[in-house]
Structure formats: structure tokens, C-alpha cells
Design brief:
By secondary structure, this protein is an alpha/beta fold. It is 42% helix and 14% strand.
Length: 459
């Protein structure tokens, strides 16, 4: 009976035993199973039978044959791989050939890897770059790779920039990654966000979560044009980018908005805010990570389908919008996510661990909230999930459009610090009345400041 254990034992006996096993089967599935489960090959493994499989009619067998040839401890027949590369039509097999040649780590193979850099498939180019980067401080390799900073593919440009053109930060002069400035901690500023952020230092915020005012949908959010609205948000989010710590997250809650028609002779207008603001964010340096769909009960939203229910005429269908987007972005960094995590001590990591019952998909079913003072309130449950998933205890959470202050209250309840800005005086005064802000946490009191007081507090 064909099994992983049987394949493992035969492998230890040498390549001939595995070759006999492969030859004893004719069906594709069994041969693929054998090749996929060979694992690491012994140093003296005779892999000559693998080259015969390079001519097999089934691409999955050719692919796995190439993978195992790449494990032959620098003893691969590169010429046969190159011959296959020149005739192979399957892109996965071609990419694996490049990977197999790169894994040999042989200087004689650099000439082949240089040729692969000219391929039209960016994944093949990336594999070739990976194979060449093992030759550290090699001037010849650098001369071939550095020009790729102008490659049309963004992934290739990113890799080359990181390897050869990035400016390393002076760690001795940088503010500790897990820390922030005292004057920002548990502070709410009654001011225009752009004015307040002029006084906030670079890289001082760990997480931003906000829902901006919708375009001309509320009395407090009137803009002369949709373009002006998007440009205002762009200006704010550029500043958010500046003050965000390296590699940390920005979550934006928005949804398409309907501006009612002027009269029955005119049509209403629907603006796709999440999709229109996205290019601005990418341009300024945010890296798109995820799209989370917040689903609300249908009974909680305005009924748009009522007319269609009566006439059922095609073209007149308008579904009830029960979703909003929570778009997840990360500040561009050359460091992996693990670097950010490792900045924290073990105790903080342990205390911040997310409990059971966390969301496993990007569809979150959460009831909306309603408030007499603020017409568009964050649900506490939504805030809890975002703050727990994207920050550690002690981090500073920022909301540039503070509103009724749900982000700050929730951050405080989860042992995080908060910094909010809110332009509207009535919302600012409302936050002052909230018990969550008046309670002390770790002996730290919430500060409610005007812009002038905020500037004075910095000193």
C-alpha cells in the first residue's frame, strides 16, 4: 500500500528503490503523491530517474520532478533544466525551474539567473533575484540587480529598493517603538484635525481607527464638491501616515453614500467613497492589507427595495445596503511583521493575546448603534475587535474624527491609551459627560483640551 512511511523508507535505501516504486504506477495521482512526499533527500540519493520525468506529458509530474531535482545537494544537471525551461509552456513549472537552479547556490549558475531577469513573468524574475541575493557583496550581481529599481513590476521594485537603495534609520536617535509622547496620552483635542496634527511628532501613534464624516450626508460634513471632500480626507490621511509608527496599522470605516435627488425630475447620486479614497491612500504609502465587511441587520437600514417590491420591473432594482467597509492598511516598511511584535516584552505580548471567539472571516455581523447626540456612532463591539486585533496593551490609539468618543472609551477599557481630535464643540462637550472618560485608569486622567491648551501642554 502506498504511504508516506513506505516512501520515507524507500528513500533511505537510495534513488533506485524510489524509481522502481514510481515505475510500478501508471496513474498520475500516485506518481504525484510519491514525488510530493519525498521530502529532504539524502546526500547520496541517486535522482537520475527524475530527469526522465521532465518529459512526462502531465505538468504536475514535471513540476514535482523539478522540485526534487532542486534538492540534489548541488549535483543537479542544470543543462537539462534549461532545456526544459526553453520549451516549457506551464508557468508553474518554469518558475520552479528557476527556483531549483537558484537553490543550488553555485556561482556557475549566475549566468542563467541573469537571463531569467529578462523574463516577462514577474514571479520568475523574483525567483531569479532570490537566487542571486545569496551571493552577498558580489559586484557582478549588484550590477545586474540594481537597474531593476526601474522595473515595471512593483514587487520587483520593492525588493530591489530594500536591498540596495533604502536608507537605514539611526536607532540611537529614534523614539522607542512601543512608547509614545506623554502629552498625547488619553488626550482629546477640540480642534480641526489638520491644525492639531501640526503639533504631533512623526511616528507617535500605534493604531488609527476612524470613520470620516460622509460626503454631504450630515449637517456637520458639507463640502463644496466630491473632489474637495476626497482631497480633504487625503490631507488628513497623509498626516496620519506621518504620525504612524513604522509598519503599524490604519483602519478606515466607510461605505458608499447616497446624496438625495433635488426633485423627481432628477436622479440621486451614489458615491463609492471606499473605492475612490483607496488610490489616494496607496499613492501616499499605505499598503493595502484586508477588506473587512461589516454587516448590519436589514431592519436597521433605510429601505431602498420597497418600490421594486411593488413593480418588479428590471432596471429598477436597488438592494438595501446592509454593509460597510473596514479597510485595513499598513504603513509601508521593509521590516516583516515579526519585527513589530518583537519590540514588546513577553509579558505585554501575553497580556495582549486575543481570546477565543475571534473573527475567522472578513465578514463581521455587528448591530449598529444610535445616539441622540451623534448620528453615526461606532458600535463598541466593532471598536473592540479592531483595537484587540491591531494593537497591544499600552499602545496609543488615534481617531482623527472623534465624534462621540467610542474609540477612546473602548481603547481605555482595553488598557490602551488614546488620542482623539474632534472639531465639533457639541461632540467635544458630550464626551466630557461620559463616565468612561471620567474614571481613572492606572491613575491617568483624560485631558480635554482646546487647540491652544494642547499646544501649551506640549511645552
Amino acid at each position: 500500500m502506498l504511504s508516506k512511511e513506505n516512501i520515507f523508507q524507500l528513500k533511505l535505501n537510495g534513488g533506485e528503490a524510489v524509481a522502481d516504486l514510481v515505475n510500478s504506477y501508471r496513474d498520475i495521482g500516485s506518481i504525484v503523491f510519491i514525488l510530493e512526499n519525498l521530502g529532504r533527500l539524502p546526500y547520496n540519493f541517486n535522482g537520475n530517474f527524475l530527469y526522465g520525468l521532465l518529459e512526462h506529458s502531465h505538468s504536475q509530474i514535471r513540476l514535482n520532478a523539478v522540485k526534487n531535482i532542486g534538492k540534489l545537494n548541488g549535483k543537479s544537471n542544470i543543462d537539462k533544466l534549461i532545456n526544459l525551461y526553453e520549451t516549457e509552456k506551464d508557468t508553474s513549472v518554469r518558475r520552479e525551474i528557476v527556483s531549483a537552479i537558484g537553490r543550488q547556490r553555485q556561482k556557475d549558475n549566475k549566468k542563467y539567473l541573469y537571463e531569467f531577469l529578462n523574463d516577462d513573468d514577474p514571479k520568475i524574475v523574483c525567483q531569479a533575484i532570490r537566487g542571486l541575493l545569496v551571493f552577498e557583496k558580489d559586484n557582478d550581481v549588484e550590477e545586474h540587480l540594481k537597474p531593476l529599481i526601474n522595473h515595471q513590476n512593483e514587487m520587483i521594485r520593492t525588493v530591489i529598493y530594500k536591498e540596495y537603495f533604502s536608507i537605514k534609520k539611526n536607532k540611537n536617535n529614534s523614539f522607542p517603538h512601543t512608547e509614545t509622547y506623554e502629552f498625547l496620552k488619553n488626550t482629546i483635542v477640540n480642534a480641526d484635525v489638520l491644525e492639531a496634527l501640526k503639533y504631533v511628532p512623526d511616528e507617535s501613534v500605534h493604531l488609527t481607527f476612524t470613520s470620516p464624516p460622509y460626503y454631504n450626508a450630515r449637517d456637520y460634513s458639507i463640502y463644496p464638491s466630491y473632489k474637495a471632500y476626497l482631497e480633504f480626507l487625503s490631507d488628513v490621511f497623509k498626516e496620519v501616515y506621518r504620525i504612524t509608527k513604522e509598519g503599524r496599522f490604519f483602519l478606515l470605516n466607510t461605505s458608499p453614500i447616497i446624496v438625495p435627488r433635488i426633485s423627481r425630475a432628477h436622479a440621486s447620486k451614489r458615491y463609492p467613497i471606499p473605492f475612490d479614497i483607496h488610490p489616494y491612500l496607496i499613492e501616499m504609502g499605505w499598503e493595502f492589507i484586508d477588506d473587512i465587511i461589516w454587516v448590519k441587520p436589514e431592519a436597521s437600514v433605510k429601505n431602498r427595495v420597497g418600490g421594486f417590491q411593488q413593480h418588479r420591473k428590471p432596471l429598477g432594482y436597488k438592494p438595501n445596503p446592509v454593509t460597510e467597509y473596514v479597510m485595513v492598511y499598513r504603513k509601508t516598511t521593509e521590516k516583516l511583521l515579526d519585527w513589530n511584535i518583537h519590540q514588546y516584552d513577553n509579558e505585554t505580548i501575553f497580556r495582549s493575546k486575543v481570546a477565543d471567539g475571534f473573527e475567522t472571516t472578513n465578514v463581521w455581523k455587528i448591530d449598529p448603534c444610535f445616539d441622540k447626540i451623534h448620528t453615526a456612532v461606532f458600535p463598541v463591539e466593532l471598536c473592540k475587535k479592531v483595537i484587540q486585533y491591531y494593537s497591544y496593551k499600552g499602545d496609543l490609539v488615534f481617531d482623527p474624527f472623534g465624534g462621540s468618543g467610542t474609540v477612546g472609551k473602548t481603547a481605555k477599557s482595553l488598557d490602551r491609551l488614546f488620542f482623539l481630535t474632534e472639531k465639533e464643540a457639541n461632540y467635544f462637550e458630550y464626551m466630557k459627560t461620559q463616565k468612561n472618560y471620567n474614571r481613572l485608569i492606572k491613575e491617568r486622567e483624560t485631558r480635554f483640551l482646546s487647540l491652544d491648551a494642547f499646544k501649551e501642554n506640549i511645552k
